[in-house]
Amino acid sequence: MSANDISITPMKPRLGRRGIIIGAAAFCVVAAIALDTTVVTIGSEQDTRVAGFSPDAYGAKEFPRIRKDIEARAVDAPTLATALTTDKKAAAKKYGTGGAMPVLPVKLTGTVGEGKSGIYDVTVKDVENVRIRVQTGPAINGTDLRDAPGDIAFGEFKNQIEYQDAGAGINRAMKAEILEGFDNSDLTGKTISVTGVFKLINPKMWLITPVEVQVQ
């Protein structure tokens, strides 16, 4: 037999025990990754968390319960004005939330006076020596709505900017739900009913951010 007559059959690689173990381990890793993967729908709550803090999503979520809380605790303007005149500290403790500058919930019906930039004076019967103003947009300033329930704390947020943005997001949610389509171009002389809150800086100067507005 010559060398040319010898045929060589290639040997198939043998999958040893070590190879089997490595392959099984790799399969387990891939399976574990698949099980641990969460599908996130765009626009969902999970998507908001992945994308970072969204003031508007936060405001839309929080405003309905803030409104209900304010409506449930709102005090008639004459009662609140009298209480503040009698004992400012006691009235703030009884009706308000917060520390040095508490936020007070109030409800009133009165006659609309002059306005500027959407902020109108309102004269309320049996309320004397108090200037009452109501924000009707387009700009809604302050963080009174954010601070009204007393349970939204700075520690919940990453930094001061995020905390401020939360207040702005709540204000925008209020505008979208309460003031959308509200015509504030000719309110002077009309009777208006308002439920809202104001920050107690000066007991004789109220700037109310509304959660309910009705023109009669």
Write the layout of secondary structure elements.
Elements: H1 17-36, H2 45-51, H3 55-73, E1 75-76, H4 77-86, H5 88-95, E2 103-116, E3 119-124, E4 131-135, H6 144-147, H7 160-179, E5 191-199, E6 205-215
Parallel strand pairs: 1-2, 4-6
Antiparallel strand pairs: 2-3, 2-5, 3-4, 5-6
Walk me through the structure.
- Helix content is 41%, strand content 22%.
- The relative contact order is 0.16.
- The protein has 216 residues and is α/β, with parallel strands linked by helices.
- Strands 2-3-4-6-5 form a five-stranded mixed beta barrel.
- The chain is elongated.
- It folds into two domains: 38 residues; 161 residues, Envelope glycoprotein gp160, DUF2291, alpha/beta domain (OB fold (Dihydrolipoamide Acetyltransferase, E2P)).
